[in-house]
Design goal:
The complex is a heterodimer of chains A (about 260) and B (about 70).
Chain A (H helix, E strand, L loop, with lengths): L2 H12 L5 H13 L1 H18 L8 H16 L10 H14 L5 H24 L3 H4 L2 E2 L3 H7 L20 E9 L2 E10 L2 E9 L9 E5 L2 E8 L2 E7 L3 H15 L3
Antiparallel strand pairs in A: 1-2, 2-3, 3-4, 4-7, 5-6, 6-7
Chain B lengths: L1 H5 L3 H12 L4 H8 L3 H30 L1
Helix pairs in contact in B: 2-4, 3-4
Classes of the chains: A alpha+beta (about 260), B mainly alpha (about 70).
Chain lengths: ~260, ~70
């Protein structure tokens, strides 16, 4: 890598935004280039001094834009998912709160915790697909078999809806362990795809608004209803998973 | 430093707030500010260059005062 290219990529490297290969090339260059290395040191010094300030008010137009984003989100009908990622949406909430003078630290932690939970949700989905035996502990398309099966296994009773006519047949269920608690995992099909619908007790901090996350080719939709948290995860495209989630909510009486 | 940041043009300052104080990724900043990721990168680069110049000036002034 030459200095010219390194200068172009230095900010992205500093912010951890480079792909692995570019990042490795940059590290090799920095080992041999005092000039670029000094520039990076300058970036680090600047960051330390800026962050030492604590917080800084956002410019008024940014506040206005965030307000507009929030209003736009609130207008979206159920099942119509915003294009923005949940993190960006969370950030807009975060800033709105922060600008009101309330500390944002807790929200930042909650944001990171949410990211971790979403990754765990995808991991649990992938793990369940490794073997049909791990996917379902009860194989049944009858909700009247599946729901009672959870009795004594969980401290709540998940509603189980049948969506065969809509093209999402119920296949079975299992108890899984996710985000430090036992959860109900309802398994649905869509052609050759599988959908895990994880149901657990909702946190007090949870909000009813639906959030969407896409990662590594998987989509996760999350919402809360009646004290329960729902996470639908699949490799189905976002629109079909949104349709599935909307059907579950309609039958359950979603947000 | 706070003064240096306040002197930044508004479009650069909002990127700094989102990146340095809220720790958002380029993609997230791009979605909130509604500009392409490339614009986020270039604005961030410009934003970082300006306070550095001011810092150097301040440091030099500080040194002169000490002499």
């Amino acid at each position: 890598m030459k200095c010219e290219e390194a200068h172009e990529l230095l900010d992205a490297f500093h912010d951890g935004e480079l792909q692995l290969a570019s990042s490795a090339a940059m590290e090799r260059h920095l080992c041999t280039c005092p000039s670029c290395s000094a520039t990076l040191d300058g970036h680090n010094t600047l960051r330390t001094r800026v962050r030492r300030l604590g917080r800084m008010p956002a410019p008024a137009p940014l506040v206005a834009r965030i307000g507009a984003l929030l209003r736009e989100e609130n207008r979206l009908p159920t099942g119509t998912l915003p294009v923005r990622s949940w993190r960006a949406l969370a950030a807009s909430h975060l800033l709105a709160i922060g600008l009101g003078g309330v500390t944002v630290l807790g929200f930042v932690h909650a944001r990171h915790a949410h990211t971790y939970t979403m990754q765990e949700t995808i991991d649990a989905h992938v793990r369940s697909l490794l073997d049909e035996r791990t996917l379902m502990q009860i194989v049944s398309s009858d909700s009247h078999n599946v729901r009672p099966w959870f009795m004594g296994k969980l401290d709540f009773s998940p509603a189980v809806v049948e969506l065969d006519k809509e093209g999402f047949p119920l296949l079975g269920a299992r108890v899984d362990y996710l985000a430090n608690r036992y959860v109900a995992a309802l398994v649905y099909g869509r052609r050759k795809h599988r959908i895990n619908l994880f149901v657990s007790l909702a946190d007090a901090r949870s909000t009813a608004a639906m959030t969407s996350t896409a990662r590594h080719g998987y989509n996760v939709l999350e919402w809360q209803t009646d004290g329960l948290s729902y996470r639908a995860v699949s490799d189905l495209d976002g629109a079909e998973l949104a349709q599935f989630s909307e059907l579950v909510q309609m039958r359950r009486g979603g947000p | 430093m706070r003064t240096a940041l306040r002197k930044l043009p508004q479009d650069l300052r909002e990127i700094v707030v989102l990146r340095e104080f809220e720790d958002l990724s380029y993609q997230e900043i791009s979605e909130i500010v509604a500009v392409p990721v490339g614009t986020v990168t270039s604005r961030l680069s410009r934003a970082r260059a300006l306070p550095k110049t001011l810092l150097v000036e301040n440091d030099n002034r500080g040194r002169r005062n000490e002499m």
